[in-house]
Every structure is written in structure tokens, then in C-alpha cells.
Write a structure and sequence with these properties.
alpha+beta, about 15% helix
Length: about 290
């Protein structure tokens, strides 16, 4: 009995040792898996809501516009982006969005007979922090999926972002009441914006993912919708985006470049093909050698 107990203890120790060895080997190798696809491009569709001097306004009482969101005044938005992963927790993103806005004083707190339509083109650079990162932290034995393959990615991950950018707006303002001296109109406008918000990703596989993002834009301009009332305007214009995108990750070379842009990688492949072509054919028999 004593011999059997000792054998069981040794078997347990051996199993624990093997498990620790596997984990210690997997962490350094697969902990760098994110470097294989550091670049990501994508695009999608979404909606936008603009809060200016016409219609709903921005102040502390209405939660900076959130209480004045109207579904019938939301308009489409089309985002395109390119993302570069610095490490498993931080990333940089370049973002462009083409969007439309619409609003009216009718049935609002500011019933003055004004309405507007605007088109926005935004370009911004953003920094992202992943508080739920993509890379798994190996704190349990659940490292493998149902097929026995290493399950290195979380299915969902979430991040916060902050950035700076510019917005160009083309607006058209309509009046159903008389224009007053305090009404200022500026149909074309360029301004600086500060985007921030939250995002959620669903990882499909190493290449494909789905991304949802809710972003707030604070503008230093008061003419996003093309109108400003000098007497009552106390806050600059803001707008929100809710977007859904599909992303694709690009293979990354050892030099940290997208694989299709790395000349050394292309030259290496071309050299391999030349070597293969120059390699003489080995005869299969003496008869072929004589010929």
C-alpha cells in the first residue's frame, strides 16, 4: 500500500510538472502571437446625432444631449479605419467618417422655426486602451479549444479611446420665422474635434473581427449645423456616433511592416523561386543520366 501511495504521489507531481512546463513554454511563444497581425483595416455603417443651437441643446440638465436624442433625427454614418497594435493593451487608430445630420426646432425646447441639414467629414487619430485585452492571461487550464488547439484569443474584448481630429461640415439652414440680429449662419465650416468613447470587439478568428463603437465628439466650433445664436448659445456643438464595422487583420513581417509592403520579404520569395528554377533535376535512373 505504501509503494502504491508513493507511486500516486509521484504521478501527481509529474503531471503538475508537465502542466507547468507546458504553460511556461506556451506563454513566451504565444504571448507574442499578436505581433503576427499588428495591422487592421475595416469599415462599416452607423448612425449619428448632432446637437447644436437648433433643436436639442447641450447642457448639464439633459446629460449633454443624451436626453434629447431623437430617432427620427439620426442619420447614417460610414466609417473607415486603420489600426496599429502597439502591444496587447494599447493601439493607435486613424479614423475617417462620412456622416449626415438633421435637426429642427419643432417639438423641442427651442421652438423658433429653425431647421438644418448638414454633411460631416471627420478625420481623427485615436489612442486605445484595452481594459479587456485580446490576449488571454493563462491563469487556468482552459488554454485549449474543443479541437485541442491553443485558444489564445478572448471572444470579446473592450476598450476606451481618446483622440484629436478635424471635421469639415457643409450645412443648409431653413427659417420659417424671421431672421433676427442674433442669428449667425456659416454654411461651410472647419473645426477641431476631440473624440472619446468606448468600443467592443468580437473576435471571429485570427483575421476577421466585428467592432461596435459609441463615440462622443466635442467640437471647438459652434457651427457644425451651420447656425449659431449669439445671445443664447453657451456651449459648442457636439455629436455622437454609434458604428458597427467589420475588420480584417493583415499579416506582419519580422520587420513590423505589413507583409505585402515589405520589399525584403518579396525579394526573399523571388530569390527562393530563382534557386528552385536553377536546381538541376536529379536523374532517376542510369538511363536518364546517359541521355
Amino acid at each position: 500500500m505504501v509503494v502504491k501511495d508513493i507511486a500516486k504521489i509521484d504521478h501527481v507531481k509529474l503531471s503538475v510538472f508537465i502542466a507547468i512546463l507546458i504553460i511556461s513554454f506556451v506563454k513566451p511563444v504565444n504571448g507574442q502571437r499578436w505581433k503576427l497581425r499588428r495591422y487592421e483595416v475595416g469599415g462599416g455603417i452607423g448612425v449619428t446625432q448632432v446637437f447644436g443651437d437648433i433643436g436639442g441643446t447641450i447642457d448639464e440638465k439633459n446629460w449633454f444631449g443624451l436626453k434629447d436624442i431623437k430617432i427620427d433625427e439620426t442619420r447614417l454614418a460610414f466609417p473607415l479605419y486603420a489600426r496599429y497594435k502597439l502591444d496587447p493593451v494599447y493601439a493607435l487608430k486613424v479614423n475617417t467618417i462620412l456622416a449626415w445630420g438633421n435637426g429642427t426646432d419643432a417639438n423641442s425646447r427651442n421652438d423658433r422655426g429653425r431647421s438644418y441639414k448638414t454633411m460631416l467629414f471627420e478625420f481623427s487619430a485615436q489612442a486605445e486602451y484595452y481594459f479587456i485585452p485580446e490576449e488571454r492571461r493563462y491563469r487556468s487550464a482552459a488554454m485549449f479549444n474543443k479541437r485541442g488547439m491553443l485558444n489564445n484569443y478572448m471572444s470579446f474584448n473592450a476598450y476606451a479611446f481618446l483622440g484629436i481630429g478635424g471635421v469639415y461640415s457643409i450645412s443648409h439652414v431653413t427659417f420659417t420665422q424671421d431672421i433676427t440680429p442674433v442669428d449667425e449662419i456659416k454654411n461651410n465650416n472647419i473645426g477641431i474635434v476631440f473624440p472619446f468613447g468606448l468600443g467592443l470587439k468580437y473576435i471571429i478568428d485570427d483575421r476577421w473581427l466585428v467592432n461596435a463603437e459609441l463615440g462622443y465628439r466635442y467640437s471647438v466650433s459652434d457651427y457644425i449645423e451651420g447656425y449659431r445664436q449669439t445671445e443664447d448659445s453657451k456651449h459648442n456643438d457636439v455629436y455622437y456616433f454609434l458604428t458597427f464595422s467589420v475588420g480584417y487583420r493583415l499579416k506582419t513581417s519580422r520587420r513590423g511592416l505589413p507583409l505585402f509592403l515589405d520589399r525584403e520579404h518579396k525579394q526573399g520569395k523571388a530569390g527562393d523561386r530563382k534557386i528552385k528554377k536553377r536546381t538541376p533535376k536529379v536523374p532517376k535512373s542510369k538511363k536518364e543520366a546517359l541521355e
